[in-house]
Amino acid sequence: MKNSQYWVKHLNLERHVEGGYFRQILKSESRHGERALYTSIYFLLEHGNPSHLHQLTADEVWYYHAGHTLTVHMIYESGEYEAIKLGTDVENGEVLQAVVPKGTIFGSSVENEGEYALVSCMVAPGFEFDDFKLFTQDELMKKFPQHEAIIRKYALKEIE
């Protein structure tokens, strides 16, 4: 049976600043202005190693591949919270793909002890690190105090 370290090794994944492991696998040669039309990564998360709350300036499409259910936690600009579960149990509300709209603050997690999830994430127009913003708990608590439990669990106390 394949575990998280199998995928990290065989897909040549590296640690990601937001949490988990990743590797860019596609970058469009077509352009959208100064940017690639799209980029795509493999992304692996483990229980206890979540993707911390962050924000992008472009839409991100998530595609489920392997492992356990992955939850994408989203706080929209309106203040509404939504959790989308990526996985194969479609009869119980899981989906194989989902979109995080640009400007949404989001992170993701694998809730079950000892489990992992492998997904791909495509950003259009293409991802650039200048478009990526990690948030601290204090920053988010000022704006979204109604989501304290999610913020305390998935936002960093401080950014190194």
UniProtKB/TrEMBL annotation:
Return the InterPro entries for the record: Cupin_DUF985 (IPR009327), RmlC-like_jellyroll (IPR014710), RmlC_Cupin_sf (IPR011051), YML079W-like (IPR039935)
**Domain DUF985 stretches:** 5-134
CDD domains, sorted: cupin_YML079wp
Protein's name in the database: DUF985 domain-containing protein
Q: Which lineage is the organism of this entry classified under, starting from the top rank?
A: Bacteria, Bacillati, Bacillota, Bacilli, Bacillales
